[in-house]
Amino acid sequence: MQNSLIIRSFFFIFLLTGNSLIGLPVNKLDSISDISLNSSGYFANESEALKFLKKSYDAQILPDPNFRDVGCMEGKDIMSAKGFQTLQLFMITSRCTGQENKYILKEIKSGMAEIDRLNKAVATPGLAPYIFPSEVPGFPTYYFPSSYIVYRHKLSNHYMTTIPVAKGVLLTKTAGLFRSGQLDRGALRDMYFEAGKAVSNFHRAFMKPAASSAKHVLQDTMIHGDFHQDNVFFDPDAKKLRVIDNERISASNYAHPYNDLSYFFFHTVTAFLPSDIKADKAFMRDWLYETLKSFVKGYVLVFDPSVKGRVVQELKEKFRDDLFGVGTFLKKVFTFDYSTIRVANKEYWPEIERALDDVSREL
After folding, report:
1. Residues 290, 288: Cα–Cα separation, whole Å
2. Which of these, 45, 62, 172, 346, is most buried using a 10 Å CB contact count?
3. pLDDT score at 192
4. Nearest of 296, 319, 322, 291 to residue 309 by alpha carbon
């Protein structure tokens, strides 16, 4: 205990105040002299990462009993799956409580900047019922870190976080599974239909009321802001959508709901599908048609029957404008070359148009 300094204590369960959650503190592990690090200050191997978790538990800055003993934990380095904001990444499997629980142990490259964004997101009014472990039927569940721990190596701080692993199939994997025959067409349709319903329920719950003179059904709402399919899991058993990397959600992040849909399809196609799948143009047209049509069918389902057709047409206009018009959304949101997004997705306009037109006809 004397080798650790507790800056602030935090019990594992988020604290609820009204309809908001209080963000997590950053606790400091003051001495890590018995943990082997490489020259960059990273854990030398998986065993050292497990020792770090147990030491944090013993210091009472990580009170989750899933980390109480290295003997009931397993660690796997998964840096091959890291994002650009990640410096260390481990999959932790714990059986310390008598059942198997999985966590991500991650070092955040941007440190306190990302932690502040995450804590701001957690405290967003009205978001608490949708944050894991809470779940609302028919809505997405958002996964946030369960702890933040900082240790110091030489002159650098290393900001570690533990995150419960979201259950389900990562949606970027569906293309490969569908192409190989491991996921049939009906199951693919069901997954994206349920995803569309969940996203629509969330958008509608936070959508600003339309003015009496409003020409459009879809109004600004709280958006995720990074809603590509590599951040989204679908649990087919629970028919549940589970979402990670949620630091951009906040009360100030209101925009047209199409923002999330554009990320969900355009950014996924451009940045996250394997190159061999993207090279198979016939397959891509089929997969994009099926997933977009199913998603939009689920999305419009939760609206009043009198406006469903208008919702589809409003989404069609947004898709078309981004590919052939001024493209205001894509220019504003995507930080890499906008022309890449347009070129990569423009060729799929016939499938996009056909999918949306088929949804309209089937209403």
Report:
1. 6
2. 62
3. 98
4. 296
* CB hemisphere CA count around 57 (13 angstroms): 16
Residue burial 316-352, b: 16+ Cβ < 10 Å; e: rest:
bebbeebbeeebebbeebbeeeeeebbeebeebeebb
For range 288-314, the mean pLDDT: 97
**341 — pLDDT class (breaks 50, 70, 90):** low
CB 12 within 8 A of CB 24: no
CB atoms under 10 Å from CB of 189, counted, come to 17
d(CA 282, CA 285): 5
**Tokens 């870190």 correspond to what residue?**
145
- Cα Rg of the chain (Å, integer): 22
Q: Which of 145, 64, 127 is nearest to 254 (CA)?
A: 127
Can you read off the two tokens belonging to residue 187? 């199951």
User: Could you read off the pLDDT of 249-287 as tens digits, one per residue?
Assistant: 987 789 999 999 999 998 899 889 999 999 999 999 999
| Tokens representing residue 112 in the block | 């306190």
Paired strand residues for 105:
90, 162
Residue 29 near residue 152, CB atoms below 8 Å: no
Tokens 């940045």 sit at which residue? 271
Q: Are 301 and 197 in contact (CB under 8 A)?
A: yes
Task: Count other C-beta atoms under 10 Å from residue 47's C-beta.
Answer: 14
pTM of the predicted model as reported, rounded to 2 decimal places: 0.88
Alpha carbon of 208 to those of 217, 254, 263: distances in Å? 11, 9, 21
Q: What is the pLDDT of residues 126-172, one digit of tens each?
A: 999 999 999 999 999 999 999 999 999 999 999 999 999 999 999 99
Could you count the other beta carbons within 10 Å of the beta carbon of residue 20? Answer: 17
